[in-house]
Queue: 2 jobs
Job 1
Amino acid sequence: MTDEEFARYAKQRQSARDVDDARTGTFRNEEGTRSFSYTSMVIDPPDGRVPALTAAARSRPGGQGSFGVGPWEKVQDFSLYDRCITRGAIGSIMPAVYGNGARIIQTPDTVVISYEMVHDTRVIPLDGRPPIGEGIHLFMGDSRGHYEGDTLVIESRNFTDRTAVGGARHSEKLRMVERFTRIDPQMIDYEIRVDDPETFTKPWTMRMTITSQPGYEIYEYGCHEGNNAMRNALTAERAYEKAAAEAKEKGLPPPERVFQQVNGPDRAR
Amino acid sequence: MSFSVRVFSGAVATAAALMALSVPPAMAQAEGSADAMAAKRANPHWKAPRNAWGQPDLEGVWTTDDMRGVPMSRPAQYGTRAT
């Protein structure tokens, strides 16, 4: 960034902090304390953009959250995050409007990373044990770690195809290499190499600097599916089905979907 | 409390950033590995701590709050500039 670009960015960030810190309810003090002049998380390829998706990935259905437009046949039609199950290994560390903490615990033969959001916890062996069988797939993948100088390196595989990275639902072939390097008392450089030939046309790397924050504490994570929207959506879907059946009996077209009226197709996700 | 970490593609830090930080500011080229970045960013007088087992000490509570303004993909205006 030029000095002017950075000054503008830092001013925007400070404004966001001022608003956030002045809140009296939830989401207070979640905007951090530092401004970095990173222009993107993606650092490879050099254009800083997530590579193009493969044709298979483009045709892969994405999960819908409770802001989606349905149809809602069953609870499994909602995303895993909406169902309070997981954000996935990469999603768990992606900055959101709240709950961006992660606790790292080290033992002689294990590293544990416990994320504030959803409280997903990865237990990562350092003892060189072989990976689990190829037929086993986990939301958070199967990870093995080792140290290279000042860097913790974690290699992960055996993911499901039910979580996302870079805005795309990845495949079971995803391989991920994370590198954690502490660069000063309050900062860790964190790099993630993403390799999934069934989803991205080439491997790519993203980078964040994770930091300590003054007075930051990890709070209990409470979650109700879709903030209770799941019950409402499923109930409304049944009401729609009933209305559609009644219309059909009368020889009328099905009624317009209220989901579509409220959320619009652009909000489906 | 808030302060800015000016990450340069060159090697010059502003006096304001220096004064604002309780530790020396990070300076980096974003290209290359985390190791290379860390080598360029780190305070040359600061040594990464080790824990009781001799491992790099990463233990603690960390957050990505400071990354909230950083987009996943780079806006076109920045071209190939990573910082």
Job 2
Amino acid sequence: MSAADQPTAAARSGQAPTTAPSDSAEAGVDKKPVTPAGGRPDRGGSMRRLLRGLLLPALALLSAFIVGGIVIIVSDEVVITTFGSDPIGALAHGLRVVFRAYGALLRGAIGDPGQLLDAIVALDDNALRRALNPISETILSSTPLMLTGLAVALAFRAGLFNIGAEGQLQIGALAAVLVGFSFTGLAWFIHLPLALLAGAIGGAAWGFIPGALKARTGAHEVITTIMLNFVAFRMVDYALRTPLYQRPGRTDQISKIVEPSATLPQLIEHPLLRAHWGIFVALAAAVVVSWLLFRSVKGFEFRAVGLNPHASRYAGMSIARTIVLSMVAAGALAGLAGATIVLGTTRTLTPGLGGGAGFDGIAIALLGRARPAGVVAAGLLIGGLRAGATPMQAATDIPIHLVVVMQALVIMFIAAPALVRAIYRIRAERQIGAEAFAKGWGA
Amino acid sequence: MKLELRGISKSFPGVLANRNVDLLVQPGEIHGLLGENGAGKTTLMNILYGLYQPDEGEVLLDDAQARFAGPGDAIKAGIGMVHQHFMLVPVFTVTENVMLGVESTRGPLLQLDRGAARARIVEISERHNLHVNPDALVEDLPVGVRQRVEIIKTLYRHSQVLILDEPTAVLTPQETEELFVIIRSLVAGGTSIIFITHKLNEVLEIADRITVLRRGEVVGTVTPADTTREALAAMMVGRPVQLTVDKSPSQPAAPVLELTGVTVRDDRGQLAVRDLDLTVHAGEIVAVAGVQGNGQTELAEALTGLRVIESGSILLKGQPIGSDPRSVYRARVGHVPEDRLEDGLVAGFNIAENMALNNYWQPPVGRGLRLYRDVMAEIAEERVREFDVRTPSVFNDVGNLSGGNQQKVIVAREFSRDLALLVAAQPTRGLDVGSIEYIHRRIVEKRDQGTAVLIISTELDEVVGLGDRIAVMYQGKIVGILTPEQATFERLGLLMGGAHPEEHTAEELAALAHEAAG
């Protein structure tokens, strides 16, 4: 590329307005007054900033729903067969299907308000519990998603792209289930924390490996974590064939059952309401991660190294130690995700546990802009989509995989903020959070 | 070619970068464009080069209105630009670099016609005495020659208006003189030159007329004959400024920093600092002059625990200096790194966090695992006031500050404690006159408090103005130590360019070095 072409490319790709004022924006800053002596800094803009931060994910989600709707319409058999003869009618039918599908999705995620109200009015305990089932399912599926989302977000804050939450989750589950079924006669307040801890340690160990490899040899964590995912899958396969794990009398790959003293209790005891205390583990983890990142010395180092390793080194931080530590912490979070599944949801370990929650963590961290609160919200959202997918399929014959398509669309729209901005004509903001996240691949 | 900009305005969200700018460049004129960083010089030139569209106003070439949708149009219209950072492919030859983008071809398979291109390059090179070997690989060429390759590139594309963006930033004084000879030769051939700079001496020496920009507006256009450095500086800044560093004679006390036979390798394993000896006393400023890339960076890194020394010793108050940044910090060494945004600050962190970058781990900011953000903010508020950092709040992202204010954040962080030694590399690079004045004053203040100060700079004005002794570094060695009185630009330039002392003033230099070393 010649000297002449290079600026052209920059200008045409739409970067010009963001890079341009760097030279001149200064003048504007200079004019503003210094904070008055002793006065608390102006935090009035924080609400606006929060709303701005929410705008992009919200629009990405909206776009995903719209494109998802188009996918439903163009893949609908009635639409395909009648479009030639009656295009208006076919489209109307398509729209009806879309609304039915999204309605079912919503009902599957948060339930039917009417049904809930009736149950409350009728004071019918069983009806109430049935009405709560969708919310319970949403909580259930979002629990591990929040934890893996935190695992990805934490590592990202330290400048690392942790694609290995899936493997860390598997190893965490492997360790947690072992502790869960091995000890008998322990009190629950000893056994359950022990099993959770085992899950965290298992995941941490699996996070340590890519961290140490990166710190020592510079091996890129994206490559090593992806590879370690496969190793983790095969380790689970293998373990489930050993007498240590395999349930006696079974020939398939299934582990022994977790002792009741190590299970996460259900929130409400009822066969239809599977949500368990794991959600509190996830929420507590979000609080801890938030504290760690923004209120602790280590978190200061994580974020500094993530934003600028050079300056961090000049400031006397150990880049290698920070990399290892952040991967260990991320691994522990993903390991906890595995633990909540085996101790709360399945109470046993089988191959493919978690249905790819580790990979979904990447999407959730992205959607949550690598902020703990954002990750919790994104986890609930994607968890809700997952929970609603099955009722949607039952109601409309639209395969549950549509939800996966929509999730992929969300990621795509968030990873391509310029696209969303172009569609909705929003002015560019400074590159933070998710955008930098999406570009992190190249680093 | 005659070039005219009429009533150019350009704003970016929240910022008016150019306001109603008029600029007239006559054929064969060298027009100096002077202004502080952020004055809108670059925006204006990017409009001229087709990178931005002006909101208002027009561009006229030879009195005909011109519209550039992109640099391609500008190049076709005869406008050439030599960027501050060269746009060359290091592993290509000069010829290949020059023809890149306008390749001449021959034959049915469109083979590259290097011969034709080479012939034209030789012709251009000879016409303007550029002395460029068309077959040399760019990576083997010194910086000054690379710049000439950039100039050839524009001439090869038939440029009639040549924009030079801070062309002397990377050159030695001698190379600058050579560049001026070339510029005069180009002008004699009818090319018009726009020479962008913030260096007053240069613009006075080379320009036919000088236009000064401040905050996006034209303050005035003057000729060198009717103006002075002081007057230009005042136009740039908007108030009278002091151009010389105001300081009393130094009162050196005991040696603080003693380097003996220090040898350091760079990242590629090459010897960057070779067997270097240097002593800095308490209460004096030693300024290390030299062309970029002569081992100064590695020297600063070795001093601050960022780079392991191969051999030799670095003593701080008689003790070996620490081998990691934190123990060096504890030994009361302050460090202003040469690249603000790369090494000195964390963009994305706010001002308070950046000010705590060197002490976040110790009380009162960090206790155990806890980070006391309110304490961090309080300290930052205080320092923002004390060091006059212009910002609405300490919670603003440091990346949004101007260069001068960013440097003030670093200075505030590093200077706000009792220092035994201060190592400052390029402390005022790219800053405006007002900020330079301020930072120089702070450095002298530090010296007067008894700190040993080591300045590493490529700006000769700074070296001579600030240094109590001036050490010239060439290829990893100190090749001469001068007092400010002895340090004429010519003598410094010769030493910086690696002139062998024996060829010039062997006895004289030895005597000077001896005299200055005491």
